[in-house]
Design goal:
The complex is a heterotrimer. By secondary structure, chain A is α/β, with parallel strands linked by helices. Chain A contains 11 helices and 24 strands. An 8-stranded mixed sheet of chain A has the order 6-7-5-16-17-18-15-21, sandwiched between helices. In chain A, strands 9-3-2-13-24-23 form a 6-stranded mixed sheet, sandwiched between helices. A 4-stranded mixed sheet of chain A has the order 1-12-11-10, with no helix packed on it. In chain A, strand 19 and strand 20 form a beta hairpin. Chain A starts with a strand and ends in a 6-residue tail after the last helix. Chain B is mainly β. Chain B has a single domain, classed as Roll (Ubiquitin-like (UB roll)). Helices cover 5% and strands 30% of the residues of chain B. Chain B contains 1 helix and 8 strands; from the N terminus they run βββαβββββ. In chain B, a hairpin with a 2-residue loop joins strand 6 and strand 7. Chain C is of the alpha/beta class. Chain C has 17 helices and 24 strands. In chain C, strand 5 and strand 6 form a beta hairpin. In chain C, helix 1 runs parallel beside helix 9, helix 4 crosses helix 7 and helix 9 packs antiparallel against helix 10. Chain C is globular. The mean pLDDT of chain C is 92. Classes of the chains: A alpha/beta, B mainly beta, C alpha/beta. The interface between A and B is medium-sized, with 14 and 13 residues. Strand 21 of chain A pairs antiparallel with strand 24 of chain C, so a sheet runs across the interface.
């Protein structure tokens, strides 16, 4: 039986980030990953680094994370392919621009200055070939995007260098509390530690249930498309208000298109399937955003399974059982929060105190009081 | 690189490769014509702009990609030449026409 | 043409055409689609085209058979859509296709994949240079455009196809600079266990021996036990380098090199459908599992032809008939057992020499130097793959995620087997255990505009 100070269930980015911060604080950490690191949400991510349009309850954590992204090589000794060319959401009608202006003004009132409203000329400067029908939008200049696989490699390698042990092909089968320790039973053996962090993504509720705790959780299988490489340089990540489209160009020149259109998933097998009739809408939206991309070829499509809560906010809190902590349910927008969420959960695990940034993410809101507005 | 074995008097027509008129015959795929036309390449790759010629001629290598009548990244080994077809051999990444 | 069918046949080569004709004879009406503009697959490619008498003669009687088959196929009146590519298949079956830059989807109760095979990728240093092609490609050029090399050509590899092509080329006045035979030695020992099979398939074997004699008589330099073959050049191939069995390295000027090391079934569609596959040591490839009427492990999904296991045109036709009969039975069209008996007998005869051919030309598994490009699309080398394997110790999908190998338009058709081999060697595990890339749709690239118009495409492809 292998003993550590903290066991982390789940080898996705949140699990790795938590592991890294804990290891740097001196803890002996073991990560137990059911398949391989980044198999699900983290490996299927569009890797948008976004504060634009975030729920204000996430903003304190997102601001911390954004500061860390801008110096990410200090955390993981690699720039993760992060570029801060901004994120933009465009609108077509006056009513929509007015609604965006109101939203941004409320943000400013809450103390957040990450977004500004911009007009016709500026959106066209930012997005060459933009459809003339768009009249303006909200822009977060310090936002951007990273390379999802480089990010995974960097977090994993840095965690290992910091002394974290990572076991892959180690799905968790049972969890038992014995006095001061958890015993976590996996396919490759048993592991013990006084503290366990449940970072199991879409399977977070299943892990919680092993300890007798019920947390409502469903899942998403957002579909992504990637195209052949293009010469165009579209620097910001662009979305259309009211449409399911997230449009960005990678550093290789490929278009990476998402937006949350749902495919099908199966939690037991971990498999996903595309729904092309639904995805057609995403392809149509891309052609509406920048008409000249209609002739560009999609090379491959995929979808990854992510945990989803009813209010689309994550669950990051102590568990009901002693020495248990949850961090999952990022509902399709967890990537940007990774560096800071890991620091916050490490803090919580070490001190036992829930930091302010995490207060809105208690699981109780999903069960007793209902979802937060 | 290749030459055609044909009877005199066989029907011919022209296609245009990067603007140059090139003789073609019924049944020719565009890839076959590219392999008769110096410098015998279809494109330069999007990754490192290395020259590539059609390789498998049956649709499984994707090295014969060229622009045909304005449509980019066409597998030219699958397309039969027609009179006045315009073929452009791309260099590097796909250029999107605004 | 109807817009609704119960049965879809993908591929109008020997197997697809035979299945279509068989089904129409039973009173059923499938839809046949094929990427190419004309029926025939690869072996009977462009049989309907016009060519000189000399070229027709060189292509031989097996090719001429194709003209008859294609005529029969057309005469059957079966619904046939050329220029149509399959890009996604779902259980049920919902099938997504594109034609004339328009995508559409249809439902079928049974699907027959008769998409054939491809040449086994044979990566050597310099194989991406203009001037290096497959033997199959050279033969396709001969069939579609009566095109032959205009200078002496080098051929490297193993198997019956290089022999056939070289013979055809010589008969048309072409020149062969040399044949670098990479077949592993020790053939006699491998054939003896198959002596009985050899006897039954003797017509094929005599044919092969005749080709060998003709090539020898024509003075084609034949080099066996050759290793470390490389194409060298900057913008195109300029030199050929190889090392003979006496360890002498040779470098000669060369501008055209044809490669061939056998044929492997096209497995992307069956992998995408999560069909079971077995690893075949004799043929060095994954083969989709099928029962004796050609059904895969997915009910209602059938395979026929070389895509179900390499066997050649006559075997493909027999398998096509068998799958057609199997589909008829599956859809409740009564018993087909007498037809099946006949078709199976044809299949057995057609496959008689296969064990000997397999024994004569086992996969070579030559060493792949680090500088060899493995992923042609993303321009990654064997060294890149080995470094990633050492760093990440992951399977093909993780290596793909970390290096981009397999993410290009060919989706692993040119690199998948090489990655499988390199990883199997690095991790000292079986080829079967290492596995293949997870196949992501679309099976072939589709434009954003095509996909966007999917709903409209439903009305009229």
């Amino acid at each position: 039986m292998t003993a550590s100070d903290v066991i982390i269930v789940g080898g996705g980015l949140h699990g790795l980030s938590g592991a890294l911060h804990l290891a740097r604080a001196g803890a002996k950490v073991t990560v137990l990953e059911g398949e391989f690191v980044g198999r699900h949400a983290s490996g299927a991510s569009a890797a948008g680094v976004r504060t634009l349009g975030r729920n204000t309850l996430e903003m304190p954590l997102a601001i911390q994370a954004m500061d860390m992204w801008h110096e990410i090589s200090e955390l993981v000794e690699d720039d993760c392919g992060f570029h801060a060319h901004g994120q933009l959401r465009v609108v077509e009608t006056d009513a929509q621009i007015a609604a965006e202006a109101q939203r941004v003004s409320r943000l400013v009132d809450s103390g957040y200055s990450n977004e500004v409203i911009i007009g016709q000329d500026q959106i066209r400067q930012l997005v060459p070939g933009l459809n003339p029908k768009f009249i303006g939008g909200a822009y977060a200049a310090d936002d951007g995007a990273a390379d999802p696989h480089r990010t995974l490699i960097a977090f994993r390698a840095t965690a290992i260098r910091a002394g974290v042990s990572i076991y892959e092909g180690a799905p968790v089968q049972a969890m038992k509390r014995d006095g001061e320790n958890w015993t976590v039973q996996t396919k490759v053996g048993a592991f013990t530690a006084p503290k366990v962090v449940n970072a199991a993504g879409a399977w977070g509720a299943r892990i919680a249930a092993m300890t007798g705790e019920i947390i409502p959780l469903s899942a998403k299988a957002s579909m992504m498309m990637v195209t052949e490489r293009l010469t165009e340089t579209i620097r910001p990540v662009v979305s259309i208000v009211g449409r399911s489209l997230s449009f960005k160009q990678s550093s290789q020149g490929t278009l990476v298109l998402g937006g949350g259109i749902q495919g099908r998933y199966d939690l037991d097998s971990g498999r996903t399937a595309m729904d092309f009739h639904a995805l057609a809408k995403g392809a149509a939206a891309a052609g509406e955003l920048i008409p000249s991309v209609a002739g560009v070829r999609i090379t491959r499509c995929w979808s990854g399974i992510e945990g989803k809560t009813e209010d689309l906010l994550p669950v990051i809190c102590p568990g009901k059982a002693a020495g248990l902590f949850h961090i999952f349910g990022f509902s399709g927008h967890g990537f940007q929060l990774v560096p800071a969420a890991g620091a916050a959960i490490a803090d919580m695990v070490i001190t036992g105190v829930v930091p302010d940034v995490l207060l809105p993410f208690n699981a109780d809101r999903l069960t007793t009081q209902g979802a937060v507005e | 690189m290749f030459k055609q074995l044909t009877d005199p008097g066989d029907p011919t027509f022209h296609v245009y490769i990067d603007g140059e008129a090139i003789l073609a015959r019924p049944g020719d795929t565009i890839a076959a014509i590219l392999l008769r036309t110096p410098p015998y390449v279809a494109r330069h790759t999007p990754v490192k702009e290395t020259p590539r010629a059609p390789f498998c001629l049956m649709g499984v290598c994707f090295d014969c990609l060229a622009t045909v009548d304005g449509i980019t990244s066409v597998q030219t080994c699958m397309v039969e030449a027609r009179p006045d077809m315009r073929i452009e051999r791309p260099r590097g990444k796909v250029r999107v026409q605004p | 043409m109807k817009t609704e069918h119960d049965i879809l046949i993908v591929g109008a080569g020997p197997a697809g055409m035979a299945a279509a004709v068989q089904l129409t004879e039973l009173g059923l009406s499938p839809l046949v689609i094929d990427e190419q503009a004309m029926p025939g697959g690869q072996i009977w490619r462009a049989t309907e085209g016009h060519r000189t008498g000399a070229v027709q003669q060189a292509l031989g009687p097996e090719y001429a058979e194709g003209t008859d088959r294609v005529a029969r196929f057309r005469a059957s009146g079966v619904d046939y859509m050329p220029g149509t590519r399959l890009w996604h298949l779902e259980p049920g079956f919902q099938v997504f296709m594109s034609r004339n830059e328009a995508a559409f989807s249809r439902r079928y109760r049974a699907v027959l994949l008769a998409t054939g095979a491809q040449e086994r990728p044979m990566p050597i240093p310099g194989w991406t240079l203009p001037g290096v092609m497959t033997v199959g490609a050279a033969q396709i050029l001969l069939k579609t455009s009566a095109q032959i090399p205009d200078a002496p050509v080098w051929v490297a590899g193993s198997g019956p196809l290089p022999l056939l092509y070289m013979r055809q080329l010589l008969s048309l006045g072409g020149q062969i600079a040399g044949y670098l035979d990479t077949t592993p030695s020790g053939q006699a020992g491998r054939i003896i266990p198959h002596a009985m099979a050899a006897l039954r398939g003797r017509a094929d074997l005599f044919k092969g021996l005749k080709w060998l004699r003709q090539l020898r008589a024509a003075g084609v330099p034949w080099l066996r036990g050759v290793r470390d073959v490389r194409a060298i050049g900057q913008e195109k191939m300029e030199k050929l380098r190889y090392t003979t069995s006496d360890e002498v390295m040779h470098e000669v000027p060369a501008s055209l090199l044809l490669l061939h090391e056998g044929v492997v079934p096209s497995i992307h569609a069956t992998l995408a459908m999560n069909c079971d596959h077995d690893w075949s040591d004799t043929q060095g490839c994954f083969v989709p599992c099928t029962d004796d009427i050609g059904m895969t492990s997915v009910s209602g999904l059938y395979l026929a032809g070389d895509g179900a296991g390499i066997g050649g045109a006559l075997a493909a036709e027999a398998k096509g008939r068998i799958a057609g009969l199997g589909i008829a039975e599956f859809l409740g069209h009564g018993s087909v057992s007498s037809h099946l008996r006949q078709a199976r007998a044809s299949l057995d005869q057609a496959l008689a020499s296969r064990p000997v051919i397999d024994a004569l030309y086992p996969p070579a598994d030559v060493e792949i130097p680090d500088e060899t490009i493995v992923c042609r699309c993303e321009e990654l080398t064997a060294g890149d793959i080995r470094a990633a394997a050492e760093q990440h110790r992951g399977g093909p999908n993780q290596i793909k995620a970390y290096t981009r190998c397999g993410m290009g338009p060919c989706q692993g058709r040119q690199c998948g087997y090489t990655v499988n081999r390199i990883l199997s060697e690095e991790y000292n595990q079986s080829r079967s255990e290492t596995g293949f890339f997870r196949i992501r749709p679309p099976l072939k690239p589709v434009t954003l505009g095509e996909l966007a118009a999917l709903e409209e495409g439903q009305k009229a492809p």
